[in-house]
Amino acid sequence: MIDFDGFPRLTTDRLVLREPVTTDAADILVFRSDPVAQRYNSAPLRDLDESRGLIEEIRDVYANRAGVIWAVTLTETGRVIGIFGFDGWDTYHRRAQVGYDLSRDLWGRGLATEALAAILAYGFSELGLHRVEAQTIADNEESVRLLGRLGFQREGTRRDHSFEEDGLFHDGAIYGLLAPERP
Ligand SMILES: CC(C)(COP(=O)(O)OP(=O)(O)OC[C@H]1O[C@@H](n2cnc3c(N)ncnc32)[C@H](O)[C@@H]1OP(=O)(O)O)[C@@H](O)C(=O)NCCC(=O)NCCS
Protein backbone atom coordinates (compact mmCIF):
# COMPACT_ATOMS: atom_id res chain seq x y z
CA MET A 1 0.00 0.00 0.00
CA ILE A 2 1.23 3.50 -0.83
CA ASP A 3 2.77 5.48 2.06
CA PHE A 4 3.41 8.76 0.15
CA ASP A 5 7.07 8.52 1.14
CA GLY A 6 8.66 9.01 -2.27
CA PHE A 7 6.80 9.19 -5.58
CA PRO A 8 6.14 5.76 -7.15
CA ARG A 9 8.09 5.08 -10.35
CA LEU A 10 6.67 2.58 -12.85
CA THR A 11 8.37 1.02 -15.85
CA THR A 12 6.92 -0.77 -18.89
CA ASP A 13 8.53 -2.09 -22.08
CA ARG A 14 8.82 1.37 -23.66
CA LEU A 15 7.98 3.82 -20.87
CA VAL A 16 9.04 5.19 -17.52
CA LEU A 17 6.28 6.80 -15.44
CA ARG A 18 7.71 9.17 -12.85
CA GLU A 19 7.04 12.20 -10.70
CA PRO A 20 6.14 15.30 -12.75
CA VAL A 21 8.57 18.19 -12.11
CA THR A 22 8.59 21.87 -13.10
CA THR A 23 11.31 21.32 -15.71
CA ASP A 24 8.86 19.12 -17.66
CA ALA A 25 6.96 22.28 -18.64
CA ALA A 26 8.36 22.54 -22.19
CA ASP A 27 7.64 18.88 -23.07
CA ILE A 28 4.15 19.07 -21.58
CA LEU A 29 3.40 22.31 -23.41
CA VAL A 30 3.97 20.49 -26.73
CA PHE A 31 0.98 18.19 -26.33
CA ARG A 32 -1.21 20.21 -23.98
CA SER A 33 -1.12 23.20 -26.36
CA ASP A 34 -2.17 21.06 -29.35
CA PRO A 35 -5.69 22.20 -30.30
CA VAL A 36 -6.46 18.92 -32.09
CA ALA A 37 -5.45 16.72 -29.16
CA GLN A 38 -7.21 19.04 -26.73
CA ARG A 39 -10.45 19.33 -28.70
CA TYR A 40 -12.27 17.04 -26.25
CA ASN A 41 -10.11 17.87 -23.23
CA SER A 42 -9.48 21.06 -21.25
CA ALA A 43 -8.57 24.30 -23.08
CA PRO A 44 -5.14 24.21 -24.78
CA LEU A 45 -2.29 25.70 -22.74
CA ARG A 46 -0.92 28.95 -24.13
CA ASP A 47 2.59 29.23 -22.71
CA LEU A 48 5.22 27.82 -20.34
CA ASP A 49 3.72 29.60 -17.35
CA GLU A 50 0.41 27.81 -17.89
CA SER A 51 2.29 24.54 -18.31
CA ARG A 52 4.10 25.11 -14.98
CA GLY A 53 0.71 25.87 -13.41
CA LEU A 54 -0.65 22.54 -14.66
CA ILE A 55 2.38 20.73 -13.22
CA GLU A 56 1.75 22.39 -9.85
CA GLU A 57 -1.89 21.26 -9.99
CA ILE A 58 -0.98 17.65 -10.70
CA ARG A 59 1.77 17.66 -8.05
CA ASP A 60 -0.80 18.97 -5.55
CA VAL A 61 -2.99 15.91 -6.17
CA TYR A 62 -0.20 13.73 -4.78
CA ALA A 63 0.73 16.21 -2.03
CA ASN A 64 -2.92 16.24 -0.88
CA ARG A 65 -3.11 12.43 -1.12
CA ALA A 66 -5.99 12.73 -3.56
CA GLY A 67 -4.31 10.46 -6.10
CA VAL A 68 -1.18 9.86 -8.14
CA ILE A 69 -0.55 11.52 -11.51
CA TRP A 70 2.55 10.51 -13.46
CA ALA A 71 4.66 12.15 -16.15
CA VAL A 72 4.95 9.45 -18.82
CA THR A 73 8.35 9.43 -20.50
CA LEU A 74 9.80 7.49 -23.41
CA THR A 75 12.53 5.23 -22.03
CA GLU A 76 14.69 5.80 -25.12
CA THR A 77 14.80 9.60 -24.95
CA GLY A 78 13.44 10.64 -21.57
CA ARG A 79 10.98 12.99 -23.28
CA VAL A 80 7.71 13.55 -21.43
CA ILE A 81 5.00 12.36 -23.84
CA GLY A 82 1.95 12.14 -21.63
CA ILE A 83 0.22 12.64 -18.31
CA PHE A 84 -1.62 9.65 -16.84
CA GLY A 85 -2.99 9.22 -13.36
CA PHE A 86 -5.62 8.98 -10.67
CA ASP A 87 -7.48 11.83 -9.01
CA GLY A 88 -10.47 11.98 -6.67
CA TRP A 89 -9.20 9.00 -4.71
CA ASP A 90 -11.75 7.96 -2.07
CA THR A 91 -10.10 5.57 0.36
CA TYR A 92 -13.34 4.54 2.06
CA HIS A 93 -15.18 3.61 -1.13
CA ARG A 94 -11.89 2.47 -2.74
CA ARG A 95 -12.49 4.31 -6.00
CA ALA A 96 -10.68 6.92 -8.08
CA GLN A 97 -10.97 8.65 -11.44
CA VAL A 98 -8.46 8.06 -14.17
CA GLY A 99 -7.22 10.68 -16.65
CA TYR A 100 -4.78 10.49 -19.56
CA ASP A 101 -3.30 12.30 -22.51
CA LEU A 102 -0.57 11.43 -24.96
CA SER A 103 1.38 13.55 -27.44
CA ARG A 104 -0.37 13.32 -30.82
CA ASP A 105 2.78 12.44 -32.80
CA LEU A 106 2.80 9.13 -30.87
CA TRP A 107 -0.84 8.10 -31.16
CA GLY A 108 -1.62 4.71 -32.68
CA ARG A 109 1.38 2.79 -31.31
CA GLY A 110 -0.17 1.28 -28.21
CA LEU A 111 1.72 3.60 -25.84
CA ALA A 112 -1.44 4.86 -24.10
CA THR A 113 -2.64 1.28 -23.63
CA GLU A 114 0.77 0.41 -22.14
CA ALA A 115 0.73 3.38 -19.75
CA LEU A 116 -2.89 2.92 -18.71
CA ALA A 117 -2.42 -0.82 -18.09
CA ALA A 118 0.56 -0.01 -15.84
CA ILE A 119 -1.25 2.56 -13.74
CA LEU A 120 -4.36 0.37 -13.44
CA ALA A 121 -2.21 -2.50 -12.13
CA TYR A 122 -0.69 -0.04 -9.63
CA GLY A 123 -4.09 1.39 -8.66
CA PHE A 124 -5.69 -1.98 -7.99
CA SER A 125 -2.71 -3.38 -6.08
CA GLU A 126 -0.99 -0.42 -4.36
CA LEU A 127 -3.91 2.01 -3.90
CA GLY A 128 -6.25 -0.86 -3.11
CA LEU A 129 -8.84 0.42 -5.57
CA HIS A 130 -12.00 -1.55 -6.17
CA ARG A 131 -13.41 0.78 -8.84
CA VAL A 132 -11.77 3.03 -11.43
CA GLU A 133 -13.99 5.54 -13.15
CA ALA A 134 -13.39 7.42 -16.39
CA GLN A 135 -15.36 10.28 -17.86
CA THR A 136 -14.85 11.12 -21.48
CA ILE A 137 -16.68 12.90 -24.25
CA ALA A 138 -18.64 10.22 -26.08
CA ASP A 139 -17.29 11.46 -29.46
CA ASN A 140 -13.66 11.10 -28.30
CA GLU A 141 -13.15 7.94 -30.33
CA GLU A 142 -9.51 7.26 -29.35
CA SER A 143 -10.36 7.63 -25.68
CA VAL A 144 -13.42 5.38 -25.97
CA ARG A 145 -11.36 2.71 -27.79
CA LEU A 146 -8.61 2.93 -25.16
CA LEU A 147 -11.07 2.34 -22.33
CA GLY A 148 -12.70 -0.54 -24.20
CA ARG A 149 -9.31 -2.22 -24.80
CA LEU A 150 -8.66 -2.21 -21.06
CA GLY A 151 -12.01 -3.67 -20.11
CA PHE A 152 -13.94 -0.58 -18.99
CA GLN A 153 -17.72 -0.80 -19.33
CA ARG A 154 -19.86 2.12 -20.37
CA GLU A 155 -22.24 2.86 -17.53
CA GLY A 156 -24.09 5.93 -18.62
CA THR A 157 -24.47 9.04 -20.73
CA ARG A 158 -24.65 12.64 -19.67
CA ARG A 159 -26.55 14.25 -22.51
CA ASP A 160 -25.02 17.50 -23.87
CA HIS A 161 -22.64 17.51 -20.93
CA SER A 162 -20.01 19.83 -22.43
CA PHE A 163 -19.82 22.70 -24.89
CA GLU A 164 -16.70 22.31 -27.02
CA GLU A 165 -14.48 24.33 -29.35
CA ASP A 166 -16.48 23.14 -32.36
CA GLY A 167 -19.44 25.17 -31.07
CA LEU A 168 -21.49 22.06 -30.25
CA PHE A 169 -22.71 20.35 -27.12
CA HIS A 170 -21.35 16.83 -26.70
CA ASP A 171 -22.56 13.91 -24.63
CA GLY A 172 -20.36 12.80 -21.76
CA ALA A 173 -19.81 9.07 -21.28
CA ILE A 174 -19.13 7.44 -17.93
CA TYR A 175 -17.03 4.29 -17.80
CA GLY A 176 -16.14 2.00 -14.93
CA LEU A 177 -13.74 -0.87 -14.34
CA LEU A 178 -13.98 -3.01 -11.21
CA ALA A 179 -11.04 -4.87 -9.71
CA PRO A 180 -12.50 -8.35 -10.41
CA GLU A 181 -13.14 -7.42 -14.07
CA ARG A 182 -9.67 -6.26 -15.00
CA PRO A 183 -8.22 -8.11 -17.98
C1 LIG B 1 -6.90 9.02 -25.66
C2 LIG B 1 -5.48 8.81 -26.17
C3 LIG B 1 -4.49 8.78 -25.02
C4 LIG B 1 -5.45 7.46 -26.93
O1 LIG B 1 -4.22 7.35 -27.61
P1 LIG B 1 -4.01 6.22 -28.72
O2 LIG B 1 -2.72 6.49 -29.38
O3 LIG B 1 -5.24 6.11 -29.57
O4 LIG B 1 -3.93 4.87 -27.88
P2 LIG B 1 -2.72 3.85 -27.89
O5 LIG B 1 -1.45 4.59 -27.75
O6 LIG B 1 -3.02 2.81 -26.90
O7 LIG B 1 -2.74 3.25 -29.36
C5 LIG B 1 -3.77 2.35 -29.74
C6 LIG B 1 -3.75 2.12 -31.23
O8 LIG B 1 -2.43 1.73 -31.61
C7 LIG B 1 -2.49 0.47 -32.31
N1 LIG B 1 -1.20 -0.18 -32.02
C8 LIG B 1 -0.12 -0.10 -32.83
N2 LIG B 1 0.92 -0.74 -32.26
C9 LIG B 1 0.50 -1.24 -31.08
C10 LIG B 1 1.12 -1.99 -30.07
N3 LIG B 1 2.42 -2.35 -30.14
N4 LIG B 1 0.40 -2.32 -28.97
C11 LIG B 1 -0.89 -1.99 -28.87
N5 LIG B 1 -1.54 -1.26 -29.83
C12 LIG B 1 -0.85 -0.89 -30.93
C13 LIG B 1 -3.73 -0.20 -31.77
O9 LIG B 1 -4.23 -1.16 -32.67
C14 LIG B 1 -4.67 0.98 -31.63
O10 LIG B 1 -5.22 1.32 -32.86
P3 LIG B 1 -6.78 1.74 -33.01
O11 LIG B 1 -7.00 2.93 -32.13
O12 LIG B 1 -6.93 2.07 -34.45
O13 LIG B 1 -7.59 0.59 -32.54
C15 LIG B 1 -5.10 9.94 -27.17
O14 LIG B 1 -5.98 9.94 -28.24
C16 LIG B 1 -5.08 11.32 -26.54
O15 LIG B 1 -4.12 11.71 -25.89
N6 LIG B 1 -6.14 12.14 -26.78
C17 LIG B 1 -6.15 13.52 -26.36
C18 LIG B 1 -6.36 13.69 -24.87
C19 LIG B 1 -7.70 13.17 -24.47
O16 LIG B 1 -8.69 13.38 -25.14
N7 LIG B 1 -7.72 12.48 -23.33
C20 LIG B 1 -8.92 11.91 -22.78
C21 LIG B 1 -9.67 12.91 -22.01
S1 LIG B 1 -11.08 12.15 -21.24
Note down, in words, how this protein is organized.
The structure is a single chain. The protein has about 180 residues and is of the alpha+beta class. It has a domain at about 10-130: 3-Layer(aba) Sandwich (Aminopeptidase). Helix content is about 25%, strand content about 35%. It contains four helices and eight strands. It has helices at about 25-30, 50-65, 110-125, 140-150, and strands spanning about 10, 15-20, 70-75, 80-90, 95-100, 130-135, 155-165, 170-180. An eight-stranded mixed sheet has the order 1-2-3-4-5-6-8-7, sandwiched between helices. Helix 1 crosses helix 2. The mean pLDDT is about 95. Bound molecules: coenzyme A. The site of coenzyme A (COA) has 19 residues, from strand 5, helix 3 and helix 4. InterPro entries: Acyl_CoA_acyltransferase, GNAT_dom, N-acetyltransferase. Pfam families: Acetyltransf_3. This is N-acetyltransferase domain-containing protein.
Q: What descriptors fit this protein?
A:
single chain; 183 residues; alpha+beta; Aminopeptidase; eight-stranded mixed beta sheet; 33% strand; globular; binds coenzyme A; Acyl_CoA_acyltransferase; GNAT_dom; N-acetyltransferase; N-acetyltransferase domain-containing protein
Report a brief summary of the structure.
Pfam families: Acetyltransf_3. This protein is of the alpha+beta class. Helix content is 26%, strand content 33%.
How are the SSEs placed, and which strands pair?
Elements: E1 10-11, E2 15-18, H1 25-32, H2 48-63, E3 68-74, E4 80-90, E5 95-102, H3 111-125, E6 131-137, H4 141-149, E7 153-163, E8 169-178
Parallel strand pairs: 5-6
Antiparallel strand pairs: 1-2, 2-3, 3-4, 4-5, 6-8, 7-8
Helix pairs in contact: 1-2
The protein binds coenzyme A (COA).
Pfam family, one: Acetyltransf_3
Domain N-acetyltransferase: 15-180
InterPro entries: Acyl_CoA_acyltransferase, GNAT_dom, N-acetyltransferase
